[in-house]
Amino acid sequence: MSQTAAFDSIRSGLIPFFRLPQAESDFEGFRAVLLGVPWDGGTAHQPGARFAPVHVRRVSATMQSYNPLARADVLRKVAAADGGNVPVSPFNPGLMREVTETAIGQVLAAGAVPLVVGGDHSVALPCLRAAARKHGPLAVVHVDAHLDTSGREPWGDPYHHGTPVRHALEEGLIERGQLFQLGIRASWADANESALVTKHAGHIYTMEDIAVDGVAALMTHIRHEVGKRPVYLTFDVSGVDPAFAPGTGTPIPGGLSSREALELVRGLRGLRMVGADVVEVLPALDHADLTSHLAAHVLFEALGALAAQ
Fold it and tell me: Are 299 and 115 in contact (CB under 8 A)?
């Protein structure tokens, strides 16, 4: 299904992701559905990620449908729609998780792949719950500066944006040995912070590992390890160096370049991707929409991965 013509988009005054057709609840016939989850109630430092879906939609409207690196007309090959935003209350984190899991479940029930723009990283947990309920335990590719295996200790809340991987592991949403964390470099509370990932036989690739081995080699290894399992991508823009993605509330120097980040997502081609999210874009701290543009291109490359399946 093709994009709306640029002039028609201007005339309507509406800006859906990539100028795609809009679908509120009937997702039958679509291969992918893009959704916003405007929630930042799990943020420990700088709020504002709830506004990311608006800005990522806005910049994505400038993009065309043909991906020369994938050699595919992605938006013609993959029937995709903008499913709007999940209607979350900014004051009720439990309700956010409930309605987000329900919304993602509706997309999955229609046979489509959900591609989500947060919001902070706590929105990933209900997405993972819905995907695992549909497909069983998942392989998860997690791009981030942080492990996200924290508990309630730092802030007194078990569901802040530093906790989704902990819950996903403890709830059995991720198959043993099928967690792949890339870009890790943030400081830890102590030497045991990686213990939960190690307990579940997860794989941690620091920026030093990526510098030595390169993104292409690591993604070849990950594709081999994942095989035919259902795979979910959760992409925190803090995984990218703040020189390339300044619009985030937890910037950590020394991360991926934009080129490396997009190469990483392209490395998912050939895998059975069943969902993805891009989180922690904070437009108020962005410069020249750099981070929003990056998020839009991550989504575009995810669509390219679906086109290659």
Answer: yes
Residue 195 is encoded by which pair of tokens? 């213990």
- Output the CA–CA distances (angstroms, integers) from residue 164 to 155, 184, 233, 262, in the order listed: 15, 15, 13, 23
Q: What is the CATH number of the domain that holds 18?
A: 3.40.800.10
Please give the model's pTM, rounded to 2 decimal places. Answer: 0.95
Q: How many CA atoms lie within 13 A of 240 on its CB side?
A: 31
* In-domain check, residue 182: yes
Which residues, at least 6 apart from 231, have a Cβ–Cβ distance to it below 8 Å?
A: 138, 139, 140, 141, 268, 271, 272, 273, 274
Span 241-286, pLDDT tens digits: 999 999 999 999 999 999 999 999 999 999 999 999 999 999 999 9
Domain presence at residue 120: yes
Residue 1 lies in a domain: no
The number of folded domains in the chain is 1
SS3 category, 83: strand
Q: Quote the tokens at residue 23.
A: 């679908």
- Percentage of the chain modeled with pLDDT above 70: 97
| 8 pLDDT above the threshold of 80 | no
pLDDT at 155 over 90: no
Cα separation, 157 vs 139, in Å, equals 26
80-106 pLDDT per residue, tens? 999 999 999 999 999 999 999 999 999
With respect to residue 185, please indicate whether it lies within any of the assigned structural domains: yes
How many C-beta atoms surround the C-beta of residue 128 within 10 A? 25
Q: Which domain does 40 fall in, by range?
A: 6-307
Give the chain's mean pLDDT: 95
**Burial class of residue 224 in the structure, from the number of CB atoms within 10 Å of its CB (0-12 exposed, 13-18 middle, 19+ buried):** exposed
